[in-house]
């Protein structure tokens, strides 16, 4: 065992504090993400009530299919993909919500593949 001088004690205390904080944050985000549907209900509510592109899809009696689309245009079956294709015409709330979830997904993908702590 090494002699514990003040600088090493501080480094050890800092390392342990960082590890505990990381574990607490990972466990909290796992619990909130997997057991609390409100985290997903609220953005869905905002998208449903404040995005005109989604409201226009609700009023159409038929769902547009990819096979029915004119040449050169993509009509997605998934409404989220439709929002991503029409990013510039989306409202600011929609862009913030989609940006948050896309950033969370991309950061999680990159950090998890590199064995860094991410939930």
Automatic annotation (TrEMBL):
Residues spanning the membrane: 97-118
| Membrane-topology descriptor | Multi-pass membrane protein
Q: Which keywords does the record carry?
A: Endoplasmic reticulum, Glycosyltransferase, GPI-anchor biosynthesis, Membrane, Transferase, Transmembrane, Transmembrane helix
The entry sums up its family as follows: Belongs to the PIGV family.
Q: What is its EC number?
A: 2.4.1.-
- Domain of life, per UniProt, equals Eukaryota
| InterPro entries linked | PIG-V/Gpi18
Gene Ontology biological process terms, A to Z: GPI anchor biosynthetic process
A Pfam family that this protein carries is Mannosyl_trans2
Spell out the subcellular localization from the entry.
Endoplasmic reticulum membrane
Q: Does the keyword Endoplasmic reticulum apply?
A: yes
Q: Which residues form a coiled coil?
A: none
Its function, per the record, reads: Mannosyltransferase involved in glycosylphosphatidylinositol-anchor biosynthesis.
To which pathway does this protein belong?
A: Glycolipid biosynthesis; glycosylphosphatidylinositol-anchor biosynthesis
Q: Under which main EC class is this enzyme filed?
A: transferase
- Signal sequence span is none
Which Gene Ontology cellular-component terms appear in the entry? endoplasmic reticulum membrane; mannosyltransferase complex
What protein am I looking at? GPI mannosyltransferase 2
